[in-house]
TrEMBL record:
Reactions catalysed, as given in the entry: aldehydo-D-ribose 5-phosphate = D-ribulose 5-phosphate
Pfam families in the record: Rib_5-P_isom_A
Record flagged with keyword Isomerase: yes
Protein EC: 5.3.1.6
Similarity-based family: Belongs to the ribose 5-phosphate isomerase family.
Gene assigned in the entry: rpia
SUPFAM superfamilies: D-ribose-5-phosphate isomerase (RpiA), lid domain (SSF75445), NagB/RpiA/CoA transferase-like (SSF100950)
Pathway: Carbohydrate degradation; pentose phosphate pathway; D-ribose 5-phosphate from D-ribulose 5-phosphate (non-oxidative stage): step 1/1
Protein name: Ribose-5-phosphate isomerase
Keyword annotations from UniProtKB, A to Z: Isomerase
HAMAP family noted in UniProt: Rib_5P_isom_A
GO terms, molecular function: ribose-5-phosphate isomerase activity
Length: 236
């Protein structure tokens, strides 16, 4: 089964199992979340479902508006019932790499404001250890003025190489929705992701990392054979 259909099946199952009437929903970014938003919109139209949606990026905001869903923000709703998002990779403990689309900071804020955070992905994102599948490095959002010293510090302290992500169809670096740059850290060996995340986050100029540790409660994987596999975080 193609990845797109697998993403759709995961998204539909997650929405049908978790989205309920009168919820405030955090909406993630990427290509998989598009299917989830479409399903939410279908249920609003067919079943009269009432929800309010809080976006995690410019893309998510557009998606909510295009699907004619009620749009709000964290000023109006600092606590969300549920956040749904995609991921670039998911390990055995449901730790995630996110930020392939450059939206990691707002995605993490939205996820951390939700009572439940669930992830939708296709089978190509499943791994035992982070970095097994996603080879583009750990996305790290940084303040532009700090990018060069940070590339050097990250490589010196943690090994590997941190590269400035360049824009496509625009000269120069990719600029995030928050006006920052992204470093993609191609690491060599990491055994404790929580410690690495905390240490990187402490470096002056780092805004956020794409390591989502102990955040996801459940992941819905659309599998190659057409089924959807649901995994729960082991420590819960
Ligand atoms: O973290 C993200 C964007 O910053 C996305 O959720 C992640 O890249 C997954 O995207 P897709 O659903 O297209 O595979």
């Amino acid at each position: 089964m193609a990845g797109t259909e697998a993403k759709k099946r995961a998204a539909y199952m997650a929405v049908d199992k978790y989205v309920q009437n009168n919820q405030v929903l955090g909406i993630g970014s990427g290509s998989t979340i598009v299917h989830a938003v479409k399903r939410i919109a279908e249920r609003v139209q067919k079943d009269g479902l009432k929800v309010v949606c809080v976006p995690s990026s410019f893309q998510a905001r557009q998606l909510i508006l295009q699907n004619k869903l009620p749009l709000s923000d964290l000023d109006q709703y600092p606590e969300l019932d549920l956040a749904i998002d995609g991921a670039d990779e998911v390990d055995n403990d449901l730790n995630l790499i996110k930020g392939g689309g450059g939206c990691l900071t707002q995605e993490k804020i939205v996820a951390s404001c939700a009572k439940k955070f669930i992830v939708i992905a296709d089978y190509r994102k499943i791994s035992k250890c982070l970095g097994e599948k996603w080879k583009r490095g750990i996305p790290i959002e940084v303040i532009p003025k700090a990018y060069l010293p940070l590339t050097r510090t990250i490589a010196a302290r943690f090994g590997g190489v941190a590269e400035l992500r360049m824009a496509v169809s625009k000269a120069g670096p990719l600029v995030t929705d928050n006006g920052n740059f992204i470093l993609d850290w191609k690491f060599e060996k990491v055994s404790d992701w929580k410690t690495v995340h905390c240490s990187i986050k402490m470096l002056p100029g780092v805004v956020e990392t794409g390591l989502f540790i102990d955040l996801a409660e459940k992941v819905f994987f659309g599998m190659e054979d057409g089924t959807v596999e649901v995994r729960e975080r082991p420590s819960q």
